[in-house]
Amino acid sequence: MTRLPHRCSGSAPRAAADWVLRILMTAALGVEAVVHFQLSPGYQGAAPDGIGQGNLFITEASAAVIAGLYILLRGSRPAWLLALAVTGGGLAALLLYRYVDIPAFGPLPAMYEPVWYPEKTLTAWAEAGGVLLAGTALTLHRRMPLPRRRRHSTRQGPVRRKQEPAAPPEPPRVI
Predict the structure, then answer these.
(1) How many CB atoms lie within 10 A of CB 105?
(2) 49 to each of 71, 113, 132, 159, 162, how far by Cα in Å?
(3) Coil, strand or helix at 6
(4) Crossing angle for the helix pair 11-43 and 52-73, nearest 10 degrees?
(5) Residue 174 burial by Cβ neighbours in a 10 Å radius (0-12, 13-18, 19+)
(6) Into how many domains does the chain fold?
(7) What angle do CA 56, 127, 94 make, to 5 degrees?
(8) d(CA 108, CA 65)
(9) Residue 160 lies in a domain
(10) Lowest-confidence range among 9-13, 139-143, 147-151?
(11) Residue 175 lies inside a defined structural domain of this protein
């Protein structure tokens, strides 16, 4: 007895890989969010009434939560792009303000902090992992898009009109 191939063969491993990436990315964004929420009160003291680093930490943590939920719920290319922007932007800011002493400009405070401590290291690893995961997912989405659901429609395709044959040319009139 011959076994017929399942019409979706190959999509099960693809879907499993997609879910593994989504769960790992959500975990990375979760670590980023928790650490930023925990650290935010201690960093707001420098500018209690202004934007302050604490408010920026809360904004970063909120963006990580939103991106994590978007990844879990949709897992679409825009969701991965958002996750890449959040983790990549956070890692870039962390490394920039770790190694470069940038003075305050506009509403942004000076955030130079030339030390590594456990929470900062954990966030850096989570953000770097998030960048790699998002890059991997975007590459996979580019090469092998997930099958889209087809909407049921009564229309079978573009309507084509029958072309009528051209009328024969009229003979010249003699006056």
Answers:
(1) 8
(2) 34, 21, 37, 64, 73
(3) coil
(4) 160
(5) exposed
(6) 1
(7) 50
(8) 23
(9) no
(10) 147-151
(11) no
**What torsion, rounded to 10 degrees, do the Cα atoms 39, 40, 42, 44 define?**
160
Residue with tokens 């003979």: 171
- Pure H helices in the chain: 11-43, 52-73, 77-99, 118-143
Residues 6+ apart with CB under 8 A from 136: 21
Domain that holds residue 84: 14-143
Q: Is there a domain that residue 170 lies in?
A: no
Tokens 């940038």 locate to 102
pLDDT in tens, 50-70: 688 888 999 999 999 999 999
Residue 57 in domain? yes
